[in-house]
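Morning!

This is the sequence you dropped in the shared folder:
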Amino acid sequence: MTFLSVLIALLIERVFNQYRPARRHGWFSTYCGGMSRVGAVQWLMTRPWGAALALLPPLLLIGWLQWLAASLGSLAGLVFGTLVLVYCLGPRELGEEAEGFIDARDRGDRHRAQAAAQDLCLVEAPDTEPRRSFAVARAVVVLANRRLIGPLFWFLLFGPVGAAAYRAIHLMAEHLQAMDCPHEMKRYSDELRHIADWAPARITATGYAVAGNFDAVAHSWRTFDYVPSDGPLAEAEHLLAQTGLAALDTFPHEAHDLYGDDPGDVPPYPALTPPVVEDALALVWRTLTLWVGVIGGGTLIAWIA
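The structure's back. Tokens below.
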């Protein structure tokens, strides 16, 4: 049933996304805001595992609903798992956003292309080509983990509560980063996000190697140099950017050329023509198809055994 939930959720996400209601997480922002204003909870969240404990109430509720759905039969478990997974993907559809940027760029609509690029990029998007397309391609290979493979990974391990925990961790960290709260709260929520992203990021990078240029990704991964002072969140982000772009053969070989003084400061390499965004998106879909095939194969073997 887990594989069926994954398959149905991805079909809804990619094929029938026009019928999917918009994902709204306002209730969770209200929950995080309320927690951050309560003195005892604020004190708890300034401790190393306080952020995880603060998420227990909604996750315990989802875990109970997961148990209840499973006890009602396979069909109820399938429906509940699919609904939770669909809600935890995204929150915005990666292909739709990237294709919106490509369409605006190719039509010469600079304002719409810049707005679409800024929605995708994790930092300030460059306003000239090919720097902007390169930055968007970098964002695509990074966001594939956050929006798709990360939730799928934790769903496979723990079911609906795993996918919900991954999305809640990210939403809480993003909410706290935008708030005026103690530094320790932001630090520990980011560390929790780092833990949640560690394994999925490496699975995504492995998929990039198989679906793209294996030798280039292997070399890029071996030479990947993570500087702890960059912050825990930057580790997964930089690893995915470096390996994802290596899989496409569209990145400079020196780390300082790739990142510059700022992650958004991308030099205008002549080889980095606009189709790099299309190539990055195609790489993401190949990687996702690869891992769905692996999940399906494992499910079939388990069923036969």
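Headline: The chain has one domain: 2-304.

More detail when I'm at my desk.
O.
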